[in-house]
Amino acid sequence: MSQLSNQLASAQSAHTAVAASSVKSLMNSGSVQKRMAEVMGKNANAFTSSVINLVNSSQQLQDVDAMSVVSSAMVAAALNLPVDPNLGYMYIVPFREKDKASGSWLKRAQPQMGYRGYIQLALRTGQYKAINASVVHEGEIRDWDPFSETYSVGEKISDKVVGYVGHFELLNGFQKTTYWTVEEMDEHRKQYSKSGNYNGQRSGVWKSNFDAMAIKTVIRNLLSKWGILSIQMQEAVAKDETPQNFDPETGELTSEPKWVDGAEEESTTDTATTIDPDLAKEADEYFKSQTDSAADEG
Q1: Which of 12, 138, 173, 187 is the most exposed place for a label (fewest CB within 10 A)?
Q2: How far apart are CA 188 and CA 197, in angstroms?
């Protein structure tokens, strides 16, 4: 086993919080840099710097398991998407999960696609003539027919968001439109989002920016079911919001949940028992800080 692997095993088995300097050390290690160069070529150094800067500027990411940050970054690198939260293509998101072996809570990171990331990957295929998704305010859509995928355009009567619409058209003329009500989207969140559901209530980015997550869900669902999926698109759908493990020996990414010896990932069907009570507050603060930063940049 290499020196790097020994260091990782020691840090993970002790369940210790890892400082931002550890992320920097891992990102600059020979094995990670080799894999980064293979994936990103001449852009490897710039991408490495962006990940280190992200962790240094985010209080919520500084005590996250360092290897989970690197693993999440490798997903973004493989998809050639920036991790700058101001751009909205890909996020590295902190969350907590319980280690069944020790009973302690482990703070990790996972990759999370933004809706702009999905649109970017779709456009790279060169097969899409148009693609869009948007919030729908009260009155804007009437008589939605899910079978014919038709509706009447109405007049907006309030600022209340009642749903989300997505549409794409391929160069060959194939089109697809879908519409989700807010209630349908909330049910989807409860069922499928590990970090966005705390005791049935919205948490994390689902609480601080529900519309953005809803738009992403519409696009992801639309493309994964009916769109043309490139290899990158298939990889994005499979790894989005799924914790990853980067093996420094092989350079491979897996979704194997055993981050430490004897640890197992909790079932996503019982999120009320797998989410640390502090998670919602921390996640809210994290995404609020990113939103405020983006507003300042604008």
Answers
A1: 173
A2: 10
